Amino acid sequence: MFDDELEQVGLVLGLEPATTTEFRILIDEANYLQLDDLVVVETEVPKAGTVRTYGVVTEVASRHEGGRFESDTLRIAEELTMDADKSRSATVQTIRVVPEIWVAPDPGEPAWRVSGAARDEALYADEMERRLPIGFAKDGAPLWVDLDFFDGTKGAHASISGVSGVATKTSFALAFLRLLTAHHGIVGPAAANLRALVFNVKGEDLLWLDKANARLTEEAREQWTLLGVPAEPFPSVSFWAPVRAGPELIPDTESRMEGVTAFSWTPLEFIERGLLRFLFTETGDFRQQLTFVEERVRAQLQRHSVPDPRHPGVAVVEGRSVASLADLVEVIEEHLDPVDSEPELAWTGRVAGGTAQAFMRRLRAAEARIGRLIRPGGRRVDRLAETICVVDIHKLQDFAQRFVVGAILDEVFADKEATGQRQPLQVVLLDELNKYAPREGHSPIKETLVDIAQRGRSLGIILIGAQQTASRVAPEVVENASIRVTGRLDAAEAERSEYGWMLPSTRARARLFKPGTMVLFQPGIPAPLVFTFPFPPWATRKEEAVADDDPFEGLS
Questions:
Q1: What is the predicted pLDDT for the residue at 333?
Q2: Residue 519 banded pLDDT, cuts 50, 70, 90
Q3: Strands (DSSP E) along 215-291, which ranges?
Q4: Is the residue at 59 inside a domain?
Q5: How far apart are CA 378 and CA 268, in angstroms?
Q6: 313 and 251, same structural domain?
Q7: Which side of the chain, N or C, has fewer Cβ within a 10 Å radius?
């Protein structure tokens, strides 16, 4: 079948058993095989006919045949006293058998380098109704993700892991979003209304997604064209940053202010939506029973608060005007521990003095950290205005970052539950996932993320989680990710069970990956595949952005 279509690269070795999962190829003297090459072998099976076995090269070896001792290498190389032949072989991991009759390839059968229609069959392209190109395999041809396993049709979510600063996790996640939002024909009817929420947790790199990258090379431009997307920045992006301290609604950014909108919440929203719980997100809060107190206080606030008709966004709690988080803390303190003679008036009933004091210490600390985010006239993040919504939180303390992430994710989840519809899809890109959904402990944010991982598929909420170490993320989140991508890994991390989907040879290579090289695993292909993705056409920092007339024009 392949005599005229494909290039023969060797023969199936017969000196050791070939199995249904792995076999070796003796490479022709005039040819070569390298890691990640795709090959196919045809076997004539009695009563079944021709069976095609596709595989990916996982290791390549060479040796001198005839030598017995290490010193024989010198004698053979210099042709002094010994004569031997050089043998080169490749180890191949089976990835598909067509038709699905699992037999071992026969020794001596020709092995062919895969290309064209055979490559599509090897990578299950014929079974992917919606295949999205995400980068390039070792042969320079596109590699695809089956969208059915990302958008909730058959599976959902993606997990991206790797060493910080080297694995290019965020760069790949953004490249994936660019391809996802540009290929409307592949994504289908949901593409027009698809929205992506991106949290910017490191520097202000993501505040330039709408600007062209001045360092884009012609080679990278051609690669984006091969992937079916113009080498251009994101066309539809909104940028949001926390409001600065002070009376004006000015975003707290440095490198860019033009086109960035300040966000905050009104005191009334804070009470009605129960955002108080996102001030108690540390493991110690559960050990000290602070969450019990918080639940009672939150319920009482929602019960006793009404809008102030004279001041929009201001709440009135039992006759007290609450126009800031400081006001709210004072009201809570008054009702947390009333006079000893009337304990039944306390919002929490009888609470140990130490617990009440710890609760108030946490509230006062929270007021100092996020007080500026709770104010009348606050403006919530508009997630639906543009296709990509970037929320910058990198300048906030960890405590404030957790509050913002928790509050916005809770809003996303509540909106989806209210509609009960999967469409339009809401994609959430969250870096440093181990900080928000850690393996150990409990918190409202972790509960929300676990809920998204488990039920988000049916609600149309798709999570792209990025982390340095998947082993430190809640198992419920990682295990529910159908698509898994990994860049360079720490040697110890690579041996963790969370990377059991990788072949031993892939784990060893993952320690040496260069930036831009990743390994992909998806349910439709039973083996991990290494790929690269092109340099981004959007700026990743101010220095890369193509200059505008006035970058500080039109403050928001």
A1: 87
A2: very high
A3: 237-242, 260-263
A4: yes
A5: 10
A6: no
A7: N
